[in-house]
Amino acid sequence: MNTLIGLIIIAIGSLGQSSSYVLINKVKDWSWENFWLIQGVFAWLVFPFLGALLATNFQSLIDVYSIESAATLKTIFYGVLWGIGGLTFGLSMRYLGVALGQSIALGTCSAFGTLIPAVLSGNDLLSGDGVILLISVCITLAGIATIGYAGSLRSKDMTEEEKKKAVKDFALKKGLLVALLAGVMSACFSLGLNAGEPIQQRVMELGASSFFAQNPVTLLVTIGGFLTNLIYCVWQNKKNGTSGQIFTTPSGLLVRNTLFCALAGILWYSQFFALGMGKSFFEPGSIMIAFSWSILMSLNVICSNIWGIVLKEWKGTGQKTIMVLILGMAILIFSLVLPNLL
Q1: HSE of 147, CA atoms in CB hemisphere, 13 A
Q2: Engineering a disulfide at 33: which of 233, 246, 249, 280 sits with its beta carbon 3.0 to 4.6 angstroms away?
């Protein structure tokens, strides 16, 4: 029962994450780099900071970071690398749409983000729980690959006009390359959480609930990611001449866009807030803990494709394409429960 509760909590966070990108179309008259930066302030700074304060007070947070300085710096470093993935992640959906863009990027992220921490922790992937973990990740990848195949079928089914209508800047080859890069670099978020385990243990020793103990680590990763995205967005501002765009926005539209950015930010952050809470329901040291990153990515893919259907990104495709999509989502759902069954 506890495992099921944990999965439901993570699923709620995944629904929030996939919903956050839907709000991109609600922001008007702002360039991509301005929207991305403002929503990043909320997603990577404001809400992660508030989440960290649920674990411990501000002074204790600073003390823990200072005591565990090596883990703190390492976690931020992985966050900087993850920032590249987060940056290209947004571009992958710009070129491929919410469904296909997230599916490919999250599939790559799922494999690297699950297996690399397991190897670094000394787990043998060829025996015992390691084999179960490896099989589960492979099934996850099979599900995501199936959805990716559905995306390629969709591309063949649609006319150029339909592609542009569903995804304004649709570009399959460019989008695939960007999505793969996004997935590899996004896996560094998982490596950052793994590197920050001493911090998590320290805040729990100070009395933090296991529900919120991961939040201070998440904050460090997102700070690193924000730095990467800040540099890129400022560069894009200068390149495109959009530096003063936000300041010249009419007050009514400024408030509206900022509110949508804040909403997108809290929805995006909800996936990691829910991940920390959900993992607290799994048995410590169990295969479900090791597989939790793939669980999050699988649920993100499922929810993103649900949004893809709602947004009619799959409109105009044939019955075969829809059946392949459903098969891929069924495989992903099976992968969520397989480790616990084994």
Answers
A1: 35
A2: 233
